[in-house]
């Protein structure tokens, strides 16, 4: 009898888990009168009769497999007039739960649980709220193609507990953190996700098929939300900051040590149910991490990552069409005017960044799917202090007061499609030129999201002493879902198209074509969990005149093994090509053919100590130039509070040939050796989920040691240089940075941060091949030291109003 009872229970359990991944799940909304205490203890009476969301499906390692009973997840969801309340029970072995402490908006080596909601149920936009088993919060916005914006931040509550059954979590997500309609009855898109770090298992309540393009479009449904109204969304975040800076300039009349105080405020205001205004008044970006500067030998500028939160948070609308490079605003302006600096002037202090006076964003999406974005920022003029031959000091304006603007209309269409208009314009005070770029974009998918066609047309218009109008278009189509995918891409830009005033820009005058093939296996085998393969072929021509530019092939394969290690191998071949930019004078340079191969290894990051890296090799056929790259990273997690990381990169190049200098109208090239060494060390100590510090040390050294010189002939080939001796063309560049930041979130949305920065940079014509000499040299060079403190306090208008009523 006991045997039959056991068999019956087993069959009943098995049948209960025989879920259909393709079927959309639904969860009925439950309104509550009693508010649960957000403490991670799931014993509040209000949770008792709330429906359970369970039977999660794996997305990895085995897509579609239902979670086991021993590791099952149980979620509950309630609402009232002010917030959503989330109940989460994650069954597991208590001692196996990963719970590393890291700073907010990071996951680290930790299990997590999350809720992703799509309040307008447009299957294109959503908000995610994640909590790790250590109690660390992470939130993000999601767009129609599954792009995650982790820079979006909201103020909400959460708490976790680890107990004998695994771990638990409770959340309170106030409506002020969301945008939704004012309909009497609403259905929201909904999904839950859980990750078990040690096994790399990630599950979703409603199945997310990795073979299907998109993420938000594969959500479940939260049904029957009644009589909730969007609250007044108004918050203020005033700040004060103080800086002490020391640099041993040792110039008469210039102080080595300076101090300054700043004050400003960020404002968020919900204009209506759909749209939000974000404003920063007299912002302070002095505590963001330093840019990773490098020795750039190419004719184009280097693109740096944006670290200023205002320009990264909630900017998905403004980034459409690749017309917005936010570093243009204040940090790396495109326009400098040194016409007021005479040849015999000595530059005493050169201001290379413009002060951002204020910036404003308005963004949102209507109930009919029309997304609207308005962006404006104003930067102050830049002044360069110079000394003339008589010792007189004066300021020269090198960039005027500048106004940056973006306007976006993005209409959502059926089948996760969209049509977009975007305009960027830059207005400068005085006689400097203005710039305007407009684009019409489209993205169309078929009903099952399997095939797509997208693209757009762009126009740039520059107005100054002369007027210049340029055009560009992009067309791309293919198959984006399934094991086998393919695409064709064509990009055109005429010789006048120039979006550089507000976007990142290298060159124009091209017609590029690219064919891409991919075959991905998501079903695990005996020795791997996932396997991806790709093959791409590209061809480029100039437009005016119609000359051949380049042809290349790249192929590769990526595999994630059963032991959670992964490996990637790729190979590239570039045929002999015509480079119209390397010579810096419009001449053609016939670049020899080259090929490269690389091997990349990534470890199981759940291990306390892990290491990985890559090896790459490239050969350039002319002079048999060879390039090697050896990269090794190591991570050591001492415990859940202390962790260290070390990155070592060594890139030696031998007998490569590129432009080195010009003599009049003649372009001079050289054969050279180059070594690049980049070492980075980071450490973190996290006291609690609200307090911790991080430190990053980086030393970068790169040189160029010229061996032979060549003259570029009119036909694009090189001949031995017979001119005067060229001196001062070798390069030896060192950068050293320390970024140490302590952060304490002393109240919801409110932070105290202390920052110490040390920066040094040398750019000399001498060189030494010994790494220790370069490190010693940069450490003994003048250092720019900065110490700052910043206090930002979050004030919610509704909280103020509530407290005032109680008084």
Automatic annotation (TrEMBL):
UniProt domain Carbohydrate-binding: residue ranges: 38-212
Pfam families named in the record: CBM9_1, DUF5916
Domain of life: Bacteria
Record-annotated DUF5916 domain positions: 230-803
Gene3D superfamilies listed in its UniProt record: 2.60.40.1190
Signal peptide positions on this chain: 1-18
Keywords: Signal
Residue stretches spanning the membrane: none
Protein name: DUF5916 domain-containing protein
